[in-house]
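Bumping with the actual sequence this time:
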Amino acid sequence: MSTEPKTVAFHTMGCKLNFSETSTISRDFIQQGFKKVNYRDRADIYVINTCSVTDNADKEARKLVRQAKRQNPDSSVAVIGCYAQLKPDEIANLDGVDMVLGAEEKFNLLEHLDEIELSKDTTIFNSSVERLNDFKPSFSIGERTRSYLKVQDGCDYTCSFCTIPLARGRSRSADIKTTMKIAREIETHGVKEIVLTGVNVGDFGHKGDETFLDLISELDRLDNIERIRVSSIEPNLLNESIIEFCNSSKLFMPHYHMPLQSGSNKLLKTMRRRYDRDHYRNKVNLIKSLDPSACIGADVIVGFPGETDDDFLDTYNFIRDLDLAYLHVFSFSERDNTDAKSYQNSVPKTKRSERSRILRNLSDKKRHLFQEQYINSTREVLFESMKSGYTIGYSDNYIQVKIPQSPELINSIHPVNLKKEEGGVVFGEL
């Protein structure tokens, strides 16, 4: 007599790195006979892979626990990821949480499932990040036509606002041989695009003889992948050799995401960033000199302690004059065990929100100006999804493109004539 397989649902918060790890963990469950269902569906086990970059991430994790229990009061809930590493006791005290697994233990979740059923109390598996020496390769498959490939984890930087080194430990990576083996496995799934992810991808191989340039040079030789992107890379690690290689590459797309965080040298120093605004500007100018069509995005933090109106104006003017295509804007969030939490001259939250709104408006203007340049031109678009009667994809230089519904085009690349820009999206036709 056959029995129905147990069901498991996953929800991923935060970065592309988390998505690659969730996908890897979910495949382990499927291989053990579990049926994967949507998080909005009734499941036997719910797994929440958390982020803890901001307070909002913490609040969302708590909301997701409540959601799981509403869908199935008898379910088991496991919380993993950065929030679980940083505040395991806080999570364990939430109603409905059965197990908390930190950074080292999250990949062993399957091994601990029996303990959920045996224990009436919430079980915590969490060890010091100082013990995190192993690199766990991960990649995503099945969610879309691109795959997130984790090539690096952890960070040795000491930015004053950041909890990631506390949540993920020291910088580490696999070697190129191992990474290429995984990339070739991804090839077998029919994926068209690989996105390289990590906490600090440019730091790949820094404790050995291999470099990030060595890695991308090897990846460029893949036969059955048509596109590769770098999710994000620190300005001080995006050197001239990497930029020149990507510009001449057959696979690497003209798309760079370089965290800026502030346009004020004073604040960059207080944040303990490893560059100044001139260094950042020079990188942008170099990229654009080699390929004017390249898309460059940036992360920016507003409301950092000590940010005066003049400092913010410095940042605004600096970004306004830079050839950037978009911004990811974050209001500063005080995080436990970071130096920035104790800094004087805190910026009121109302002012943080206002500055965030101003920069998001600037981002919208920049995206519009960038995309408008390519109206009535043709770009290669990888189609990924369907929504509201349109087939949606991204150009080589990261312009979101919609065409009338054509489901047969999903997971294929086609030249598209870009016809008009509206609401941050470009409408095109074949």
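The tokens above came from a reply further down the thread. The two ends are 53 Å apart (CA to CA).
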